[in-house]
């Protein structure tokens, strides 16, 4: 024990008077010291005031819990005759009381004044602690030395809520039942979800109807299917898409054909599927208007099967394009904490309309249509890193329930359910059961506007379901119900009817009909909004829409207005980027620009994101930009925004190039000698845009291509845009980055990196680190995710993460420690490897993994600002 003694000598004699080092550290709130001393085996219970008492008196809950975990005696009294539970109740240290109760601490001990823990919590107004003690089984009738019960104490001190709680518990006699409800049972909490994605008219609604059809309705659907086939001699959907192929090779059409009723929004239903049980089915409309809100509903989950439907009536090119679109759409919405592939749920391709082809069926009723499998193979070649893509396509006629393909689908659901049983054991509680029943009544009470604040939900749940549910219990319950598709939590709101949210709110407000009648500016006062959407209270609806990031509240001349970029139909005004503006015509005027692309062949992902970029720009204008420059002005129109300060102009637009690849373009210009201002302002704008992208598509890789500054200056119609991989490769090859020049293929001239990136101001180079020299942990999260998907799976020639780790100089032991089935080994390797992005690219090339090297080349950051100056 010489070590702790020598450490103790660092305390002043006055402080250390009769206290052991552990007592001192606990009293002073030094958690690291406490941990250290515990590990050294210090005596935990030296007293009379033990380390536990001392920590509690100073309200150091974390230290108290550490001591309790280490085995500190929790029944000892201190010099005031208080046990730890008394002190914790006085100060309302809920976590400590919870831990003490869980450890079996006695709750019926009076202190020196004859007060019991319940009295102490009641007279200090700690209702959560009171609940905790009640769950632990304390005696509600216990009277302290003055013969007074805790509910009376609470009243005396003005805590009527506590008095009421205790009174109700006593009078109803339900305390034990409530407490039991909070204990997890052995019942598994499996509730499968099926998400159905696909373009308009591919058969999503039909598949759902057939999936949920019972025996009788099956017969009916089968006969309606025969009729539906007869009435469609030549498919209008087909001819429309064929036309599209010939006219615009890469286009994806999201329009619905008019001869059936297209789903509006997100149709969320609970289906009782025979042999499977209850399943929540989420049908996502194929209409593009709705895509900007899908990210809220597409988070990966292990209890989910995602179906991507495509119609065999469409040409194979269109089929592949549609499937790739949806797979990219899903992958873009993956988060960095997406666990291993097993946790993400499986993706299954379903080929529909097989009855309109010449395919035949086997004896069992399985359709033979090899081209569907070929489509899957093509998709796998185009996107080799899809997690959990089921290796077979199900081929079906959606209108024939109980047919072989539906049996296949159901058996997949059954096995998914079995997989999930073990994972969810011990999570079902009586509270969940009772809440599910109560929700039925609650939905009726809130039929008009089924949205509650979390607080209101907590209060109502306590009144109607369980008086003893703690905030943590309810939080966990809400998460469970959210995952089960019973309700939806966003920000501070709880939406208790998903059909209302998906169909009545989103389905209506983003429908083509509604969009065709909106105000062209997309700006509404609450009164204006009430006038065009009068189903429910405008203010409540607007608050919900703001939580869903559909609109943003702004104040214009003292009046509250809501801006809906999604509704903005204002056309681009001429003269927004006037080439004649004298401020930007002088020699030395600063010009620069960037185009953000998604990786090659991932078409059309920005449409759903751009309105969010506009919301984020507005938010930034209100919050940040204005802090530094009160004259920041933001003008927004359909797929475009212009941000101006007194001196600078920035144009942010969504556009498409000649290959139909979408990009977000950001151009900036400033007068002479504004290079620093332009540089930092542009970076602020980029950060804002990236934030919006990360919010909607946390898994989307973004490439930063650079526009020719020379051509921007002379207002060329089509300025050359240098791809990110070309820039990165040039920087890797160049001896010194500042000497790097890039060949402008339009003008056939060279432009230096200083001109392109630093507004021709070499001084700025001092404030940045160039990309290739940065450490690999500076790669973006989506890039790391992608590398993980490419390098994690074992490769036939071993060219996977393991070999990469060897090349990056990691020893065998470290490599072995990276191996894991639960998370990406490559991601962990990247977190640990101390190499530069440039070295990573070279290693990947040497390894023969040019696929992975290209990902890094295209998406590596160009530079990082050393000291970010807000302008
Ligand atoms: N012959 C045949 N017709 C089908 C099949 N699946 C769907 N249909 C028909 O195609 C039309 C559109 O089907 P829906 O199920 O409404 O399509 P959807 O994917 O829900 O379309 P949206 O609601 O617009 O997103 C309807 O007339 C269906 O009867 C199929 O497998 N075979």
TrEMBL record:
Pfam families: Ank_2 (PF12796), Death (PF00531). One of its GO terms (molecular function) is nucleotide binding. PROSITE patterns: ANK_REP_REGION, ANK_REPEAT, ROC. Gene3D superfamilies: Ankyrin repeat-containing domain, Death Domain, Fas, P-loop containing nucleotide triphosphate hydrolases. GO terms for biological process: signal transduction. Residues 185-420 form the Roc domain. Its cofactor is Mg(2+). Keywords: ANK repeat, Nucleotide-binding, Repeat. Signal peptide: none annotated. The keyword Repeat applies. ANK repeats lie at residues 17-49, 47-79, 113-145. This is Roc domain-containing protein.
């Amino acid at each position: 024990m010489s070590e702790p003694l020598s450490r103790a000598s660092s305390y002043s004699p006055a402080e250390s008077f009769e206290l052991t080092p552990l007592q001192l550290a606990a009293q002073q709130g030094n958690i690291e010291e406490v941990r250290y001393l515990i590990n050294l085996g210090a005596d935990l219970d030296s007293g009379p005031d033990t380390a536990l008492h001392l920590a509690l008196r100073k309200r150091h809950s974390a230290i108290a819990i550490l001591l309790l975990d280490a085995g500190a005696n929790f029944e000892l009294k201190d010099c005031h005759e208080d046990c730890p539970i008394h002190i914790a109740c006085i100060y309302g240290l809920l976590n400590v009381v919870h831990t003490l109760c869980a450890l079996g601490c006695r709750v019926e001990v009076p202190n020196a004044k004859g007060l019991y823990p319940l009295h102490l919590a009641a007279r200090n107004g700690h209702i959560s602690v009171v609940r905790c003690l009640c769950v632990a089984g304390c005696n509600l009738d216990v009277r302290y030395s003055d013969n007074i019960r805790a509910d009376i104490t609470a009243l005396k001190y003005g805590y009527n809520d506590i008095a009421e709680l205790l009174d109700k518990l006593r009078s109803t006699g339900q305390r034990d039942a409530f407490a039991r409800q909070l204990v997890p049972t052995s019942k598994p909490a499996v509730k499968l979800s099926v998400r159905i994605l696909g373009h308009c008219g591919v058969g999503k609604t039909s598949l759902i109807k057939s999936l949920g059809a019972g025996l009788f309705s099956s017969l009916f659907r089968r006969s309606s299917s025969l009729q539906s086939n007869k009435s469609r001699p030549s498919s209008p959907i087909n001819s429309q898409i064929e036309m599209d192929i010939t006219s615009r090779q890469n286009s994806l059409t999201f329009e619905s054909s008019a001869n059936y009723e297209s789903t509006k929004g997100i149709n969320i239903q609970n289906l009782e599927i025979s042999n499977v049980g209850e399943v929540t089915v989420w049908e996502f409309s194929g209409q593009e208007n709705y895509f900007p809100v899908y990210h809220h509903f597409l988070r990966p989950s292990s209890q989910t099967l995602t179906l991507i439907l495509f119609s065999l009536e469409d040409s194979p090119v269109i089929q592949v394009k549609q499937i790739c679109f949806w797979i990219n759409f899903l992958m873009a919405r993956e988060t960095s904490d997406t666990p291993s592939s097993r946790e993400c749920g499986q993706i299954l391709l379903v080929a529909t309309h097989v009855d309109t082809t010449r395919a035949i069926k086997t004896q069992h009723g399985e359709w033979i249509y090899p081209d569907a499998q070929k489509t899957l193979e093509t998709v796998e070649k185009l996107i080799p890193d899809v997690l959990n893509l089921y290796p077979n396509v199900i081929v079906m006629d959606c209108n024939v329930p109980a047919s072989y393909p539906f049996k296949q689908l159901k058996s997949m659901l059954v096995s998914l359910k079995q997989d999930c049983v073990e994972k969810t054991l011990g999570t079902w509680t009586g509270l969940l059961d009772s809440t599910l029943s109560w929700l039925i009544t609650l939905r009726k009470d809130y039929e008009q506007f089924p949205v509650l604040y979390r607080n209101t939900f907590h209060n109502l749940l306590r009144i109607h379901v369980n008086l003893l549910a703690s905030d943590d219990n309810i939080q966990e319950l809400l998460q469970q119900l959210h995952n089960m598709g019973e309700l939806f939590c966003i920000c501070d709101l709880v939406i208790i009817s998903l059909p209302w949210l998906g169909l009545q709110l989103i389905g209506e407000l983003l429908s083509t009909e509604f969009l065709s009648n909106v105000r062209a500016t997309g700006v509404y006062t609450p009164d204006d909004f009430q006038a065009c959407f009068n189903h429910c209270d405008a203010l409540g609806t607007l608050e919900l829409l703001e939580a869903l990031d559909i609109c943003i509240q702004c104040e214009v001349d003292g009046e509250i207005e809501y801006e809906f970029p999604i509704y903005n139909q204002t056309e681009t005004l001429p003269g927004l980027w006037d080439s004649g503006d004298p401020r930007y015509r002088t020699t030395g005027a600063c010009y620069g620009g960037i185009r953000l692309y998604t990786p090659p062949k991932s078409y059309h992902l920005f449409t759903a994101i751009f309105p969010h970029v506009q919301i984020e720009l507005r938010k930034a204008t209100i919050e940040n930009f204005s802090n530094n420059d009160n004259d920041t002005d933001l003008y927004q129109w359909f797929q475009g925004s212009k941000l101006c300060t007194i001196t600078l102009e920035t144009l942010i637009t969504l556009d498409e190039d000649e290959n139909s690849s979408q990009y977000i373009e950001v151009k900036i210009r400033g007068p002479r000698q504004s290079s620093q201002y332009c540089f930092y302002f542009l970076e602020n704008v980029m950060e804002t845009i990236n934030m919006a992208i990360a919010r909607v598509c946390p898994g989307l890789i973004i490439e930063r291509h650079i526009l020719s500054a020379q051509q921007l200056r002379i207002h060329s119609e089509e300025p050359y845009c240098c791809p990110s991989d070309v820039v990165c490769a040039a920087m890797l090859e160049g001896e010194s980055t500042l000497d790097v020049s890039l060949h402008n293929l339009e003008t056939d001239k060279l432009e230096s990196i200083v001109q392109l990136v630093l507004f021709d101001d070499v001084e700025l180079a001092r404030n940045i680190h160039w990309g290739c020299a940065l450490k690999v942990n500076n790669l973006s999260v989506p890039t790391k995710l992608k590398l993980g998907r490419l390098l994690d799976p074992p490769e036939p020639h071993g060219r996977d993460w393991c070999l990469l780790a060897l090349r990056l100089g990691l020893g065998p032991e470290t490599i072995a420690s990276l191996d894991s089935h639960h998370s990406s080994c490559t991601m962990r390797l990247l977190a640990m490897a101390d190499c530069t992005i440039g070295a990573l690219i070279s290693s990947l090339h040497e390894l023969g993994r040019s696929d992975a090297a290209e990902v890094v080349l295209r998406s590596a950051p160009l530079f990082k600002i050393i000291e970010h100056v807000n302008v």
